[in-house]
Amino acid sequence: MKILGCESSCDETGLAIFDTKAGLLGHVLHSQVDEHALYGGVVPELASRDHIKRLVPLLNSLLEQTNLTTADLDGVAYTQGPGLAGALLTGAQFSRSLAFGLGIPALGVHHMEGHLLAPMLEDSAPEFPFVCLLVSGGHTLLVDVTGVGGYQVLGESIDDAAGEAFDKTAKMLGLPYPGGPHLAAIAKNGNPKAVPLPRPMLDRPGMDFSFSGLKTAAIVQHRQWEAQYLGDEAARAAWLSDLAASFEEAVVDTLLKKCVRAMEHTGYQRLVISGGVSANQVLRERVSSLCAKHDWQAFYPALAFCTDNGAMIAVAGAHRIKAGQHDDLVDGSLGVRPRWPLHELSKVGKVFENAG
Ligand code: KG4
Ligand code: ZN
User: Fold this and answer.
1) CB of 203 within 8 A of CB of 213?
2) Is the beta carbon of 83 within 6 A of some atom in ligand 1?
């Protein structure tokens, strides 16, 4: 079964074809980063317009890349939510119209389920059950995963998501949009112990997160330093690197502590890290050594599938379409859910072996 996946929830247009026997056949992506960088953040109206421009040309290049035609497709999965309503609408209408025209099923997929199942695209995919730390720009969730759709949220951020905290702190340091990867890049030259920053909520039980106090503490430290700045550019670059490294370390420390609690709570042996922030090298290294120490297995998506992409939507949709799920294409619904709690998803179990 060949499933086309379509992602358009924010500022990336991603398409991919996943085969339930052969695995990922191909994927294409257009990032709008350059367009939104001018404004320091995503402009929803521009995002929607750009998705519309990209979808058909991207589909054509994906079909060319995979040597397939639309007649080879058995279903279309698209991101139904959560995300920007207008951006979601473009992918939803494109996918549903395509499926309607081809007479094949279409299915709206939860964006975070896509992130959560992205490690399934790898050769060494995790078996169920596992704990998943989902760290993206919009969400920070610790999830007990017992199967496709079997998600119990153990903890979540009560304010900023981890990626959001990276982005806001980076913006305040004067780094370009999107801030997370830029902050991580300058942190490489810094000393993570240089600037004292809090580890929020570690003194309290539970698995929830809070990053807004940490972000504010970094801003306060930066303002104090700037107030005494004497114009030495090299000293400024060194300070920014130290602050970035200390901030990154504080986020990673906090995430790891809660992962340990989730692993001990569930008794599972497998820890999956996914979402945009899972591209962070310090986080990956620290998770790997944590898991080695406890004799747990660590899993991550490939870097290309940490941030938004069509492949994760294709693989999540493939599990569900194969199990018989599909949208009603003539019910007049818009096919989008900008707000959509993860726990509302139905469990389908694992219906095919990972192709790997
Ligand atoms: O999953 P994603 O592409 O979008 C959402 O679903 O939100 O995640 C994007 C987030 C952004 O906040 C971005 O700054 C962050 O992931 N990010 C990183 C890194 N790469 C992406 N944060 C820290 N270090 C990175 N290397
Ligand atoms: Zn995402």
Assistant:
1) no
2) no
